[in-house]
Prior knowledge:
By secondary structure, the chain is mainly beta. The chain contains no helices and 28 strands.
Amino acid sequence: VGVSSAGAGGVLFDGVTFDADPATPGNQRVSAGDLAIGSTSNPGAVTGDGLRLNQVSGDLAFANLTIGNTGGTGLFIRDNPASGFSFGNTGGQIVTTGGAALDVDPIAMASRFASVSSTGASGQGSGGDAGIVLADIVARDFATLGLQIDSLSVTGAAGNGLTIARNTAALSFGSTTIANVGGTGIALVGNTGAISFGATTVSGTGNDAVSLTGNTGAASFGATTISGPGVAGIDIEGATGPVTFGTTTISGLAANGVGVDFNGATLAGPVLLSSLNVTGAGGTPPAGSIGIDL
């Protein structure tokens, strides 16, 4: 199944219940096979949201889900709070220009994408001004990841690059690149599920490059390169579980900026960095800047 071009959205579901056998109590999974919306090499062929599932119920699963779109959200999901919604896919890719690539809240999920990218998100379509928003996700299947993205990229979002909030499911991200965003590069808030990243690069943020607030689940990052953070390179606040970073470089610290800020954190687990190097803009210490604030 596919939609090659559209001027006001690819595939839009509002208030739909997905149930493969209404005669059987409960919602039986609808296995929908492959779905291709637009083209990842030409996302301008579909304008508006790519796949929007708004106020939906039941259980929907795809094999490969591929979305290319512009001027809207790639994959937008809101469940019907009275009944809930389960969603999954075993592979695929999302390329969104002029919008958020993913905006999901809340959902039971079991999804994997080879790559997801957002460019220029600023509130187009159904999404907000963040490149990717993942909130209130629980694992659809016991002891499995709620979401796995092998390669993630966000550029030019007006708000945060990546917001991950209040998830109980474990989430996994491979190579992650965030560049030139107006808010925080990567914001983790109130998650109880484990969240892991591979090699991570964050550059040119209006706020913190990486912010961890009140996460009791473990958070881990591979080799991490941060340049030009607006405030802190890494900011840890609230009650926080174990945090691990690989080799970490923070450069271009601004005046009154902080390399690694623990101020306001209550650590419920260790914070481990394989190594840490912090430098200011132009290689000199900016006025009022702090390397590590405990």
